[in-house]
């Protein structure tokens, strides 16, 4: 059974940092890209960053220079290091894996206070 479990969210002041983790199981983790997405209340779920199986990364413009996605294949885990957080980063953050079917984790709440 495919499972994606996010953790690491919380409440932080603007300018602070958080590190999110996405622990994966039930598939050959090394072979797949993983993405981080976020969804604020009333908004659609948007891509934040993704990392390919061979470690190439892409970050959307709004988080470039502040967020960094990485993966540890030995731990079947993808991370999202978030620095210089802004109130507009407040959202539920999800990781996703795509194997001709989309698999999502349950999400972790990030709240940035001004």
Question: Overview of this structure, please?
Answer:
The chain contains no helices and 11 strands. It is mainly beta and 114 residues long. The strands form 2 sheets. Strands 2, 4, 5, 6, 9, 10 and 11 form a 7-stranded mixed β-sheet that branches. Strands 1-3-8-7 form a 4-stranded antiparallel β-sheet, with no helix packed on it. β9 and β10 form a beta hairpin. The chain starts with a strand and ends with a strand. The mean pLDDT is 97.
> In terms of per-residue confidence, which ranges show pLDDT below 50 for 5 or more consecutive residues?
none
Largest sheet: 7 strands, mixed
Number of helices, counting only DSSP H or I runs of 4 residues or more: 0
Range of strand content: over 45%
Summarize the helices and strands and which ones pair or pack.
Layout: E1 3-7, E2 10-13, E3 18-25, E4 34-39, E5 46-51, E6 57-59, E7 67-72, E8 77-82, E9 91-98, E10 102-104, E11 108-113
Parallel strand pairs: 2-11
Antiparallel strand pairs: 1-3, 3-8, 4-5, 4-9, 5-6, 7-8, 9-10, 9-11
What is this structure, in a nutshell?
With 114 residues, this protein is an all-beta fold.
Features:
4-stranded antiparallel β-sheet, 114 residues, 7-stranded mixed β-sheet
